[in-house]
Amino acid sequence: MGRQQLSALDVAFLCLEQETTPMHFGALLMFSAPPAADLRRLVTLLGERAGRLPPLRQRVRSTWFPPGGATWVEEPGFRIDDHLALHYLEHPGDREELIAVVAELMARPLELTHPLWHLEVIGGLADGGFAVLAKLHHAVCDGPGAVELGLGLFDGFTAPEQPPAPCEGGFRARGLAAARSASDVLTHPARLIGGATKAADLVKQGYEAAGIFSAIVGGIRRLDPASPLRCAHWPRRRIELSRLSLSDLQRVRALHGGTINDVLLALVAGALRAWLSSQDCDLAGRTVRVLVPVNLRQGGESGFGRNQVSGYLCELPVGEPDPVKRLHAIRSAMDRNKAAGPRRGAGAFPLLADQLPRAVHRIVTPAVGGMAPLLYDLVISNVPLPAVPLALGGAGLREVYPFVPLATGQAMGIAACSYGDAMCLGIYADPRTVPDLANFADSLERALDELDGCVETTERGRSKLGSGEHREILT
């Protein structure tokens, strides 16, 4: 199998890796009780399926050309057992113990000299079920790519084919390829049109990059040293899980318009408002700027193989006390982002990173990685699963809680995943900065109750408008 070059953005994620800010994301998958009580059988099954996925057998190898670049290569002597582990919770296997174990496992960096993933099977849950914690480095792919790759682990799915690798070889091979290309153009002059098109694309990319850079410079803020959302990282992490009803979110969306993601952002804004208030922060006119990742793939395009992501920056109006006004403000802000498109604005900085030379990332990115708080306060990601029942070894998947890596200087990240009638949120935080993460998770539910209550009030009001008494008041 040929080697596949890492894109410039893939290399950037490698360069952002530090001991206290590992760049892997994760997902905690909760399953019902397996048909067979022996979880070792499931570990073996996971190993067999993971071993059939080519990206999971590959590691990163640096290259001389392009300078600072890297390729994915098959790891010699690859051992699937090095990437699988089985844990059992102590009795009674409650939620608090599960959260503590997952937080400890998520905080452990992946070894960059080996394939960049790990699966942890966790048994001993009080309800008889089990969990799987999947860890995957952001250099491998982004969230949608991880979903496509991960489907190969479930019952009834086959491993997706590896995307075709680009032509490889040494300087001689590349020289021969260039000579053949030149000869081809001389013998087929009409193909110069294709070259002109590529040149036009380069000009377009340059113009696009200049616009993004200008927006980034204009979007830089003065740091607030007293902000509770900033921190100096240390190796430990804390997580919290929040399960919301997708039907409730859809009911709110149906009344107020917009998207499920708009409603989700409004819930986070409400929870942040409550948390900031508990930190004695002045809320008057306050906003929290979040990065909302955007998938750039077209319909039917393969999800894995590289990062294909941009982003929108959105100001969450946490200073607004009215939950409906918060939702409307967020919807308007996201509508403006979508009208501009994912290739414009400061949130599109991943596109700019993907156009930089890889050697620049090797030198500059580790130093500028701590500048993320200048642009945004936290990441809020939402990656849905396919609307089909999923199972592992006959055990049905119930919930999926994803986690996003924390950038240097940022105290919290939130990721969501919809599956069935559940919207599951994984909250990932620095424990010294956000020790009361459970209260934050509870605030998400209260924020949904607030908006859902507004829906019920509005629906009751509409029903009352059908009576003669209220028609007289309106006339």
UniProtKB/TrEMBL annotation:
UniProt xrefs under SUPFAM superfamilies: CoA-dependent acyltransferases
InterPro entries for this protein: Acyl_transf_WS/DGAT (IPR014292), CAT-like_dom_sf (IPR023213), O-acyltransferase_WSD1-like (IPR045034), O-acyltransferase_WSD1_C (IPR009721), O-acyltransferase_WSD1_N (IPR004255)
Domain of life: Bacteria
Gene3D superfamilies, per the entry: Chloramphenicol acetyltransferase-like domain
Key words of the record: Acyltransferase, Glycerol metabolism, Lipid biosynthesis, Lipid metabolism, Transferase
Endoplasmic reticulum among keywords: no
Involved pathway(s): Lipid metabolism; Glycerolipid metabolism; triacylglycerol biosynthesis
PANTHER family to which the protein is assigned, alphabetical: O-ACYLTRANSFERASE (WSD1-LIKE) FAMILY PROTEIN, WAX ESTER SYNTHASE_DIACYLGLYCEROL ACYLTRANSFERASE 4-RELATED
Record-stated family: Belongs to the long-chain O-acyltransferase family.
Name this polypeptide is given: Diacylglycerol O-acyltransferase
